[in-house]
Design goal:
About 45% of the residues lie in helices and about 25% in strands. The chain is α+β, with helices and mostly antiparallel strands. It has two domains: about 1-125, no CATH class; about 140-185.
Length: about 190
């Protein structure tokens, strides 16, 4: 029965155990650690929520199809299995679910869950080095316009040249104005 529980959780991303709680799977997104230059892959995580959920009818159909029995017999076998799990809690204080994790009984109806991460070796951390390329362009969106990053550098260089040219023109005009004023006062 443990294999069917794991298979149902893997396929449907949820599994309810009446009187105990429910398991669900989530995904932790991938992330980058810039300081240590590591890229961590996404990881599926199994979570446990306490409560008294009811098993859904699809689960009973799944068990019935897997064991080649009718649905009523599947419900009976699953309820016997849940009773067996509760007996294991009273005897051992924990139950190991292969491929899922260990569920430990803390107090009267509280449980702690430690998931087994069996696929971690398939997704190792990667070394990530930042690559900087000179004169390599990419598209940048500025407002509604898309421009090439190299084009913006060229435009900035052109603007700097125009600014320098403006200063030179202003200096020439200032010298000419000073010469005209000097000529006006000296020719009197």
């Amino acid at each position: 029965m443990y294999g069917y529980l794991y298979k149902y959780l893997a396929l449907h991303k949820k599994l309810s155990l009446p009187g105990i709680g429910s398991f669900s799977t989530d995904q932790v997104p991938s992330r980058i650690d810039f300081v240590n230059k590591r890229l961590y892959p996404f990881m599926p995580v199994i979570r446990f929520t306490q409560g008294s959920p009811m098993a859904d009818k699809y689960f009973y159909r799944f068990i019935a199809a897997g064991l080649n029995i009718d649905e009523l017999e599947a419900i009976q076998k699953f309820n016997e299995f849940v009773f067996y799990i509760k007996e294991q809690f009273s005897m051992n204080g924990f139950v190991d679910f292969p491929g899922i994790g260990r569920l430990t009984k803390q107090f009267s109806n509280t449980y702690s869950f430690k998931p087994i991460n069996t696929i971690q070796p398939f997704f190792p951390d990667l070394h990530a080095e930042r690559v900087i390329r000179k004169n390599a362009g990419h598209t940048i969106k500025i407002g509604e316009d898309e421009v090439n990053s190299l084009g913006t550098d060229e435009e900035a260089a052109t603007e700097n040249k125009e600014e320098k040219n403006w200063k030179i023109h202003a200096l020439i005009l200032a010298i000419l104005a000073a010469m005209a004023i000097a000529y006006y006062y000296l020719s009197r």
